[in-house]
Design brief:
The chain is mostly helical. Helices cover 53% and strands 10% of the residues. It has a two-stranded parallel ribbon. The longest helix is centred in the first third of the chain and has 16 residues, at 9-24. One of its GO terms (molecular function) is hydrolase activity.
Length: 104
């Protein structure tokens, strides 16, 4: 959580995780990305993830992609950090996203 909030882990992460369910009705421990992609399937998804993401390891996107490689696409970039792939690779990003949409 400190990666996104820029707040110190202690005491803020426990406080946020305590308040979050009350505010949103969502319990973080019940969020299951693999189940979510199973529910999206057979609709296509393009996962774009940097292998150098400090917030979420790229293995998470790889695990979701692996579930349904027949319709899911994955691009693992490098050196882009978290949500930085477009900034570093804008031309390739645009080409890959355009190609993904063209296949729909």
């Amino acid at each position: 959580m400190p990666v996104w909030s820029k707040l110190p882990n202690v005491p803020f992460t426990p406080m946020i995780l305590t308040i979050l369910p009350w505010l949103t009705g969502i319990r973080p421990a019940q969020v299951d990305a693999l189940q979510a992609v199973d529910e999206v399937y057979p609709r296509p998804i393009l996962f774009i993830h940097s292998k150098d993401d400090p917030a979420i390891p790229s293995r998470h996107s790889e695990a979701m992609w692996t579930r349904h490689q027949d319709v899911f696409d994955l691009w693992v970039s490098s050196e882009a950090g978290h949500v930085g792939t477009y900034r570093l690779f804008s031309e390739e990003y645009t080409r890959r996203v355009s190609s993904f949409f063209a296949k729909l």
